Amino acid sequence: MKQKLIIFLSFYFEPDLGAGSFRNTSLLKELSKNHNENTNIVVFTSLPNRYRSFNKNALEFEEFSNVKIYRVKLPLHNNGFLDQIYSFYSFYSFVIKKVKIFNYDLVFASSSRLFTAFLGYKIAKKRNKPLYLDIRDIFVDTISDVIKNKILKFLLIPILRLFEFNVFNYATHINLISYGFKDYFLKFKKVNNFTFFTNGIDDEFFKLSQSKLKNKTTSNSIKTILYAGNIGEGQGLHNIIPKAAKLLNGKYKFKVIGDGGTKNKLIKYVNANKISNVEINPPINRSDLIQEYINADFLFIHLNNYQAFDKVLPSKIFELSVFNKPIIAGVGGYCANFIKKNVNNSIVFSPGNEIELVNMLSNFIFDTTLNRRDFINKYKRKNINKNMSHSIVSYLKCAI
Question: Which of 166, 267, 316, 364 gives 20 to 30 Å between its CA and that of 237?
């Protein structure tokens, strides 16, 4: 059988941090392992750049089994909007030049921001090849909420919608990580094939012994509420943590681990209000983070109060569900309903509503008789990736 070649695009990849990196690294390994006899894969990604405060060495070129990985070195940035555009342009330019040497049969692109999907579209269309998109966010929706400048929004949104129309109407297949995205994508009439392979729970979390995962009440009277991840406008931590912490002082402490574009805003609010029960730390690697999860009393998720986020399903939900700890989630829409239905021992409150959070936390009783075993088994990342990899490879038959 003739060897086939897949171009695999992911802006974030190991050893970088973040949901995109974790998702696509594990997917590539499954894709390589299950289809290495007749399929080669060329990955285009970037050297670790998600957080300026997290530096991790990685090879610019790596080759193993049936996989080649090219990591692009990007300019330093502070997660600002213009910074990210400049960084992506560097990535885009490198890939467009380098991909010319490959005789590829299928293009796979995993994208939260629209631009990686657009890059995949440009590469696939140039040679009339199938395009398989993995969409992790609806960028146009999100940017409409995030950008406050009316003139900038007036100029930018029509351009992004044109990009979106071209990209999604060309795609051979679109995977949506949240079922909440479905209605939005039905308007792209040329796309007939959708799947809903969500984020999932990685194997390394299963390596923890069940004894470690049992809920432990700390001896200290002050309970720790842990948030770990990106600290950006999308999470809106500066809108909830300082106000909630002030009301909960003496009983609860917020511990924040991460970095992002609004970290300084969070620090500013905490300092300005002389709040002593908020601790803010830089990003750490995943093995150390697991220990932080074990040590915490409550695990925290929050999304800003944007209409776009009514459709999303954050990867963090799957990660935190492994630990038999109460989850506090400030989310709305599809995500709120998903947690209420599937993740027991959870507190779900309206984004940015510190009064509702404090009241629900005051009345919360942890149910020690419940576990999340069914949820964990259903959403193992390995099983999801195995099914998704078969879905991707099936489109090699469409290749000309």
Answer: 364
